[in-house]
Request: fold
Amino acid sequence: MPATLKARLERLHSLEELVGALDVKVAETEFNDAKVRILREFYAQNQLAYAVAEGKDTYKARIEFIEEKYDTFGKKILMPKKDGAFDQEVIQVLGSINNVGEYGDGFGKPYINSKRFTTGGRKRDILRPDLSVLVVGGGMSLLMNKIAYEIPVSLGEPDVYSYALTGLLIAMLPLFYGMIKLIHGVNMNDDLNNLRTTAQKTDEFLRQNYVEK
Reply:
């Protein structure tokens, strides 16, 4: 993955500090000129970032279509319909943000995973754990049902106990499924909050590093 704008500027700043520490005579304008060249080269390749730096656009506004896509609890926990146009726009906007590299996943990694928001990515994220709960939970329910039925019979106990325990085990399956759905909602809330923070910080960073192309 190519170096982000922030990473390139940080390397330039580190070089400037090293030169200063070694007392090497380099004109201050050399580093300023190098910074301008880096910014102009980046903005020439990332038109959206340049519009943000100019103040003509914002990433905060550009991510609103993602927020609207998942603006209810139901939309956060249910599998969305495949939407190629939406997915392409997500990849484009988040790709532009990632190339800046000001902020990302909240854990020090300057990267936002677009698959967390595309309809294709959401379907995979939701389908896998849902199927796991249904398959594992269903299997466990059948196993426990067999155990709950055979033990009372072997002990000569009334069948009512096995039926009651079986009913309880079956009732637990939708409970586990509901918990997984709740986790889907919580995770999407976290992803959206992190995306908003990233968009805002990236807007601020670019406005502070604006140069004319």
Observations:
- The chain has nine helices and no strands.
- The chain has a mean pLDDT of 84.
- Residues 68-202 form one domain.
- The longest helix spans residues 159-208.
